[in-house]
Specification:
CATH architecture of the largest domain: 3-Layer(aba) Sandwich
CATH superfamily of the largest domain: Vaccinia Virus protein VP39
Structural class: alpha/beta
CATH class of the largest domain: Alpha Beta
Number of helices: 11
Radius of gyration: 23 Å
Order of helices and strands: EEEEEEEHEHEEHEHEHHEHEHHEHEH
CATH topology of the largest domain: Rossmann fold
Distance between the termini: 48 Å
Oligomer: single chain
Length: 378
């Protein structure tokens, strides 16, 4: 689909001539942060006449890829879009070179956490004892998982490359054991892998004692006791997890770094954005989000901390930029974008997670609006 030209105005409307819903997602910006009048900044969704409900929810468009859509009016005239559906066909509706940053957290393809993610099955098993099947979450070893993960991600990352502006940054959380497959998928799609970042935290030990296996062995009890004593402290080869790697890729630049920045306003890192008062580094230590941060009823298994997401958004985008997350989950990246004065597009296949995202986004928008009113009243 050919991108439309736009003056930078952000709105949602039905065009009388075509019957298409046209959503202006973010105004294109130059290196100085001013609005560029000629760059593409909207995408059109062909379909039946949409009806704007009082709640701000658009009626489902008669396209198989979009099951439901919400649009959010953000501060400073920005917009956010949340769409319920599979991300690959939804990505194909976005125009090329229209997104400033991809910040995402794909399924890890570990023990059911794959393209057929079933939140109820996974949640019930994991919440009982932090296990899926008979193993700790994410600890069932199968080499096929990595192969399937790479196969799943490559076409999606290819679309991410297409919609990113030249020089735009691509950040994808992954799991330490399958990080390499995620990085290869990004590289095969055309991204330049510039580094690996890491979110570090205090994890829970997942190594298993072998005592129960010894006790089931058909040997005398005295030998069992001696063997258990010999194996004291010996567990399965899994140390306490303390890092979640992040693929750091970049779409090839349009000229030099400076030339690309002048044309597209992306591709350079703002190193004035310190981490705990220090020059930003590849490792970011932050606790896992608690219930207060995740919000009521948020049962997503892999919620990322706002501190890390907001830091990455500040470093790699300007205010008013557009952040894309094709695997929105419970909405953490969208909430972070709202906090940092950026627009967002988020896709999510799970209906209940869409509702969680919607609640979290609306709550953050309300908070930001209240904060702005408080500032103006001073």
């Amino acid at each position: 689909m050919e991108p439309k030209q736009n003056s930078g105005k952000r709105d949602a409307r039905e065009t009388e001539s075509t019957g298409k819903l046209v959503i202006s997602l973010a105004a294109p910006r130059t290196a100085s942060g001013s609005v560029a009048a000629t760059a593409p900044a909207v995408y059109a969704l062909p379909g039946a006449d949409p009806v704007l409900a009082k709640s701000g929810i658009y009626a489902p468009i008669t396209l198989p890829v979009i099951e439901r859509q919400w649009r959010f009016e953000l501060t400073a005239g920005l917009a956010g879009v949340l769409e319920h559906g599979e991300c690959l066909p939804l990505l194909k509706l976005l125009p090329a070179n229209s997104v400033d940053l991809v910040l995402t957290d794909p399924p890890y393809f570990l023990d059911g956490m794959d393209g057929a993610w079933n939140r109820k099955t996974l949640g019930a098993s994991a919440q009982r004892a932090q296990v899926i099947g008979s193993m700790p979450v994410g600890m069932k070893f199968d080499p096929k998982q990595g192969v399937e993960l790479q196969k799943f991600l490559e076409p999606i990352f290819l679309e991410c490359l297409r919609v990113l502006k030249p020089g735009g940054i691509f950040l994808s959380f992954s799991q330490a054991r399958l990080y390499h497959r995620c990085a290869i998928a990004a590289e095969n799609a055309g991204f330049e892998i510039r580094d690996m970042f890491g979110w570090t935290y205090e994890g829970q030990p997942k190594a298993f004692s072998q005592d129960h296996f010894v006790r089931k062995m058909n040997i005398p009890e005295r030998e069992k006791a001696a063997l258990i004593q010999t194996l004291q402290g010996r567990k399965t080869p899994q140390l306490k997890p303390m890092i979640e790697p992040i693929v750091f890729g970049q779409k090839p630049k349009d000229g030099t770094f400076v030339q690309n920045w002048i044309k597209h306003g992306v591709g350079l890192a703002d190193t004035s954005q310190t981490w705990d008062g220090k020059f930003p580094g590849a490792l970011m230590n932050s606790p896992k989000p608690g219930n207060a941060e995740k919000g009521d009823g948020n049962d997503h298994l892999t919620v990322k901390p706002q501190k890390v997401l907001r830091h990455l958004i500040r470093i790699f985008t300007q205010p008013g930029a557009l952040v894309l997350d094709p695997f929105l989950g419970s909405g953490s990246s969208a909430v972070a974008a709202v906090c940092e004065g950026r627009g967002f597009i988020g896709f999510e296949r799970d209906a209940e997670h869409c509702q969680i995202s919607k609640r979290r986004i609306e709550a953050q928008i309300a908070l930001e609006t209240q904060n702005q009113k408080s500032i103006k009243s001073r």
